[in-house]
Design a protein that fits this description.
Length: 625
């Protein structure tokens, strides 16, 4: 087996139209500036994507990149990124996944792959160190994701597969990789539009070794130690998975219930992490190389299967008024097999239920009634009857049938499961998140609700923290490791570990510029430097995240995004019976400050000077400053 020191520094660039491929290399400057994962994928996309292309046309580009940690044995090191232009939102979408494909691709000798063009008929891509082979996938039409991945496992050690939803161009179709998913923004439809049913990589053809093994060992051991001793990991994620958030979010009244009409429910206990732990004797079913172990399995409907994640449980549960965990599990499995994003599926179903309740459209779907859900999910995936309209997502439906005031999406992406009316920073997060209504852009709910370090109902300094966290998350997604490492890697650093909470809280709330100095990113930067031999500091790491975030925003402005898109649904802005003092929702106040901090102009466009400072070469088309 070949030994690779650091990274392969080879990207496989595939033209599906001509069925040819080339090897592309990345300059050291880009590797330092964008790290890998999300950052590098966006840079490769920026260099190739023509603004305005049809997301489902041959000119759209689909890119997967691994991070530098894959194959090294570092903590939580199996994640990879995918980017493209989204058929659901019409802007750039990014997704991160912990399935086996990333490791297989990297150990086949490739740090990433770029797909361009379109095959005339359905195909599989079989990747190894020599490149790619194209084989016929005609017989796999409408096969489920697991059937497809099982077939691909005869060739490779990790795969990507789409289900019928991706083939049928459902706008929120996902891509599976060993029961982990590239979930949001319809990446499955992008592969479907290119006639790619699945991709696999042989893997195991090379061994990745860090350039500086001693230093790598130091940072890697530190990472494992921090994970082991962190309260949130040990007592929350390992015990209850992401469902650890359900009870606390219900108590904090930020749980989406019945299309965000309510924000808590006395029935929430029946779908909580605690209930599942007590009744389903869960084990672990996590991403590869994970030591945080938020992914669990348990017995539902007499079948051992994955425990639905927090977002799925809310969007396919409380938000459609269903508090039956067996039903939610059944629908979670259907979405996984057919290749549907559970968040957008649930958010769109909630819109349909409310629109039907108000007589805007004709559907048997009603809040709290599980009867027609399974069939509707199938109708969506196979584009049958009204399912083919639901397949467009909630924004398009509300444009057609009305009810835009209760369409709970931002920039066309359905909101995830944190109601910002009880977590004010999340309101700003949703409004400005690059891919639309995504909770993972800044994860500021962690500071507001999970750790309670910031006042969840105050706007004070929220713009500062959203910007700071967006940069951190973009860098973590580029390194690329799991976002949940942020709890141990940041909080367990010596200074923060021993500082009393009664000191920490006021400093964080009122002196963010001092507080930000407490956050130590050296575990991340140390891992990157020791593996690649490219020296970066914790500050460089954070700056790289900032560069990635701004590049993504700039790419979105080329697709027409400006301040008009940085909005929240009417319901969030104007309906807050629980806290009338926060009515209307104070978005504009935070938004103005956020633009100033981000160095966007008043239209929300990144200023030319700030792009230049970050080394982003602008094409000037939308940059009016
Ligand atoms: S903590 Fe959860 S999301 Fe993160 S790598 Fe592990 S299983 Fe995957």
């Amino acid at each position: 087996m070949r030994t690779v020191s650091g990274t392969n520094n080879k990207i496989l660039e595939i033209d599906l139209t001509s069925k040819k491929f080339i090897e592309t290399n990345v300059s050291e400057e880009d590797r330092k500036n964008y790290l890998g994962g999300k950052g590098l994928a966006l840079k490769l996309l920026y260099d190739r994507l023509t603004p305005g292309v049809d997301p489902l046309g041959a000119d759209n580009i689909f890119i997967v990149t691994t991070g530098v940690l894959i194959g090294t044995g570092a903590p939580n090191s199996a994640r990879f990124s995918a980017v493209s232009k989204s058929p659901l939102t019409g802007i750039i979408t990014h997704s991160s996944c912990g399935g086996p494909f990333g490791n297989a691709l990297k150990t086949s000798g490739w740090d990433g792959m770029i797909l361009k063009g379109k095959s005339v008929s359905p195909i599989f891509l079989l990747i190894d160190s020599q490149g790619v082979k194209f084989t016929d996938a005609e017989n796999f039409s409408e096969k489920t994701t697991s059937e497809t991945e099982t077939h691909l496992s005869y060739f490779g050690n990790g795969s990507l597969a789409i289900g019928p939803a991706g083939e049928n161009l459902v706008r929120f179709a996902n891509i599976s990789s060993g029961e982990r998913y590239l979930g949001r923004g319809g990446l499955g439809a992008v592969l479907g539009s290119k006639n790619v049913k699945g991709i696999t990589a042989r893997g195991g053809e090379c061994k990745i070794v860090p350039k500086d093994p001693e230093t790598f060992k130091k940072y890697s051991s530190r990472g494992f130690k921090y994970i082991k001793q962190n309260y949130y990991i040990e007592k929350k994620y390992k015990m209850y998975g992401t469902l650890n958030h359900l009870s606390s979010n219900n108590n904090a009244q930020i749980l989406p219930v019945r299309n965000f009409k309510e924000s808590s429910s006395p029935e929430a206990e029946k779908i909580s992490g605690e209930y599942i732990k007590e009744t389903r004797n869960p084990g672990y079913r996590s991403c590869r190389n994970c030591s945080i172990l938020c992914g669990h399995e348990g017995v539902f409907n007499e079948k051992l299967t994955s425990v639905p994640e927090y977002e799925t449980t809310c969007l396919l549960g409380s938000n459609i008024g269903v508090f039956d965990i067996d039903k939610i599990s059944e629908w979670n499995d259907i979405c996984g097999e057919l290749g549907l994003d559970t968040i957008s599926a649930g958010g769109t179903l909630a819109y349909v239920m409310e629109a039907a309740e108000k007589g805007l459209l004709d559907s048997p779907l009603r809040f709290g009634k599980p009867e027609h859900i399974a069939k509707t999910l199938e109708d969506i995936a196979f584009m049958r009857g009204f399912g083919s309209e639901i397949a467009m997502g909630s924004r398009k439906l509300s444009e057609r049938y009305g009810g835009e005031e209760f369409c709970m999406s931002v920039k066309g992406l359905e909101l995830s499961a944190y109601d910002p009316r009880g977590s004010v920073g999340m309101g700003l997060n949703y409004a400005v998140a690059n891919r639309g209504g995504c909770h993972l852009s800044s994860t500021i709910f962690g500071l507001e609700i999970t750790m309670g370090l910031l006042d969840s109902e105050s706007t004070i300094n929220k713009a500062t923290y959203v910007e700071f966290m967006e940069n951190a998350i973009a860098a973590i997604n580029s390194l690329h490791t799991c976002l949940f490492t942020i709890y141990p890697f940041i909080l367990e650093s010596l200074f923060l570990r021993y500082i009393p909470v009664f000191v920490l809280k006021p400093v964080l709330r009122y002196f963010p510029f001092i507080a930000k100095l407490f956050f130590d990113f050296s575990t991340y930067s140390g891992l990157f430097s020791s593996i690649t031999g490219i020296k970066i500091s914790g500050r460089d790491f954070l700056k790289s995240g900032k560069r990635t975030h701004i590049l993504e925003r700039y790419m979105n402005t080329r697709e027409g995004v400006d301040s008009n898109g940085d909005k929240l649904p009417y319901r969030i802005l104007n309906e807050n019976s629980r806290k009338p003092g926060l009515n209307p929702f104070p978005l504009n106040k935070m938004l103005k400050k956020y633009y100033r901090i981000r160095k966007y102009d008043t239209n929300g466009i990144p200023m030319r000077s700030s792009l230049k400072r970050l080394g982003i070469e602008a094409d000037g088309k939308q940059n009016r400053t």
